[in-house]
Amino acid sequence: MSTAGTPVDDHGFELKRRPTRLWVALSLLAVVALLIGARFVISGNSQSPNEIPGATLVVASTESNAAEQALIEFVAREVAPRYGIKVAFRGLADSNTINRAVSEGEVAATTYQHRLWLGQVLEANPDFREEAAAPIFRWAFGIWSDKYTDVAQIPDGATIALYSDPANEAQGLWLLERAGLIELDPAVDKWTATQRDIVANPRNLKFTLFDFAAQTRALPDIDAAVGYSEFYIAAKVPLERQIFAPPPPDEFAAVLTIGSRWADTDNIKNLVAAFRDPAVQEFLATDPRVKHILLPL
C-alpha cells in the first residue's frame, strides 16, 4: 500500500483510458462480417468439389466397411484415371451423416444403400436432394442359423430375426417366402411388405427385430436370422452358418447415390461412368476382399 507523498511505481508503463466506443464499434463490425460470410456459405455460393475441375471426388461408406472401401479404392486407383478424375474413400459414421454429406456436396457419392433404403432416407429427410445414379453390386444376403443346417429343419414356433428398418425387413420377408417358410399377399408390393402382409405361416414362425450388429450378436439365442453376410463375416461367424442364400433381387442392388444438384456436372458424369466400367464387375467377381460380401450384378 502506498502512503501520501510516496510516488506509485508505474513499472515504466503509462496507463491510458481505453477508447471504449471505438472497441464496441469494431466488435459490431466483426460480428456483421461473420454473419454476412455465414449467409454467403449457407446460400450456396461456395463451390462443391463436385463442380471444380481437378478436385478429388470423395465416395463415402460407413467407417468399418472394409469391402466397400476396397471397391472404392480400386476404382480410385485403377479406373478413375481413365475418366480424368481423382477419387478417394471416406468412412463416415452412419446413414444420415453419409446422405447429408452427399446432398450438400461435401462428398460426391456413396455406395452405402439400395434404392429402397434411399427412399426411406429421403422420406425421413425431405431437405435431402439425392438420386440413384447407377447400380453397382448386390450385397450377399441370407438365412443364418447356429442350430440348423437347412431351412427344412426350422421347427414349428421358431423365432426368426429380421432387420428393424422397413426396407430390409421387407427383403427378409421376401427371402423367407423364397425359402418356402411363409407366403406374402400377392397383391402387395413385396419390397414394401411388412409382417401384416403374411397370409400363410405354416410353421407358426415368430419374428423379432434387430439392427444390423445386434442381429449378429443374437444369433446363438434364436433359431435363425435373415441378414447381410458382411456383418456375420465381420463377426467371425463361419460361412457354413448361412443355410439359404439365393441371388438377391435387383431391387436390393447397391446404387451409386449422388447429390441431385451436381448430377449434370462433368465430374459426377465421369464418376458414374467410372463405376459403370466393366472393370468394376470383374473386381467384384475376383477380388478376395469382397468375396461372399459384395456380389457382381
Automatic annotation (TrEMBL):
Keyword Lipoprotein (UniProt): yes
Cellular compartments per GO CC: membrane
InterPro entries: Lipoprotein_NlpA
Listed SUPFAM superfamilies: Periplasmic binding protein-like II (SSF53850)
Major location category of this protein: membrane
Record field: transmembrane: 22-42
Membrane topology qualifier: Lipid-anchor
Localization annotation: Membrane
Keywords: Lipoprotein, Membrane, Palmitate, Signal, Transmembrane, Transmembrane helix
Family as reported in the entry's similarity comment: Belongs to the NlpA lipoprotein family.
Protein name: NLPA lipoprotein
Provenance organism: Mycolicibacterium thermoresistibile (strain ATCC 19527 / DSM 44167 / CIP 105390 / JCM 6362 / NCTC 10409 / 316) (Mycobacterium thermoresistibile)
